[in-house]
UniProtKB/TrEMBL annotation:
Gene Ontology annotations for the cellular component aspect, listed alphabetically: plasma membrane
UniProt name for this protein: ABC-2 type transport system permease
Alphabetical keyword list: Membrane, Transmembrane, Transmembrane helix
Transmembrane segments: 20-38, 58-78, 99-124, 144-168, 180-204, 240-262
GO molecular function, one term: ABC-type transporter activity
Signal peptide: none
Length: 270
């Protein structure tokens, strides 16, 4: 199994696009920080925004990281079908479950490395371009946590979201074998969730069970900040651990269905 994961990782990392997406993530992080610097600069030349205020939220760049991971997850299975290499892959001494699991693990590894890159880029760019601060300084409104911990909590919560995005995208990619459709669905979940949540917020007060819908789980990053009023004022409120548990349950359920579909997939049509 480790050999299979190693092979899948080598195939992914040899692609220029895999490196380019990480590079774009770094460039965009510095560009956004530079933009923030220009808009918060006083006439005296002093930058009014503190480094930890932007670093704690990972420069609001997690959406770009999620986008790149969705693209990787969409291509890692669909390309095997489009290039006809899936037949050669399946004649190797590995089960279909192992092959799909290895691709899933490789996507998770790519996500973790991307998260580390974003974390470090945010820390460095914020302290270079904004009013520098010790990352050990406490960030107001986050349970007395320092900036390193707050940013780590955002990174961890986003990794949970990535787990769900990877599972959904791989599911579409394995079931329909269409890279473009897998990317489209992944982006739809990524960027359309706020619209769907706005609609669901209207009906959740009447149907409380709807707060366990998967789109509500995508709000998990909002639970990191202290907000004692949210539990009383927001009808669909779930705490961090409830949302984390929900994301894991949905991811496991989709993963099991995906494995079932992939086992029955007729590769002779590819």
């Amino acid at each position: 199994m480790s050999e299979l994961i190693k092979n899948e990782w080598e195939k992914l990392i040899k692609k220029k696009s895999s490196w380019i997406m990480w590079l774009i993530l770094v460039v965009l992080t510095f560009a956004i920080t530079l933009l923030v610097r220009s808009t918060t600069k006083a006439q005296s030349g002093e930058v009014m925004m503190k480094a930890n205020d932007l670093f704690a939220s990972l420069t609001e760049m997690t959406s770009f990281l999620n986008l790149f991971v969705v693209v990787v997850a969409a291509s890692i299975v669909a390309e095997e079908f489009s290039r006809g290499t899936i037949k050669f892959l399946l004649i190797r001494p590995f089960t279909r479950s192992q092959i799909l699991l290895s691709k899933f693990i490789v996507c998770v590894i790519y996500s973790v490395i991307g998260t580390i890159i974003l974390y470090l880029s945010s820390l460095i760019s914020a302290n270079l371009l904004l009013s520098s601060q010790s990352p050990l300084a406490v960030v107001k409104g986050y349970h007395g946590w320092n900036a390193l911990t707050v940013a780590g909590a955002y990174a961890g919560a986003n990794l949970l979201l990535l787990l769900l995005y990877i599972t959904i995208t791989l599911f579409i990619s394995a079931a329909i074998r269409s890279q473009s459709l897998a990317v489209g669905v992944g982006l739809g979940v990524l960027f359309g969730s706020s619209i769907i949540n706005s609609f669901l917020n209207v009906v959740i007060p009447k149907y409380q069970w709807l707060k366990w819908n998967p789109f509500n789980m995508l709000n998990i990053k909002n639970t990191i900040m202290e907000n004692k009023e949210a539990a009383a004022s927001y009808p669909g409120y779930l705490n961090f651990w409830q949302m984390a548990g929900g994301i894991l349950v949905y991811s496991i359920a989709i993963y099991l269905v995906m494995q079932l579909l992939f086992k029955k997939r007729d590769v002779s049509l590819s």
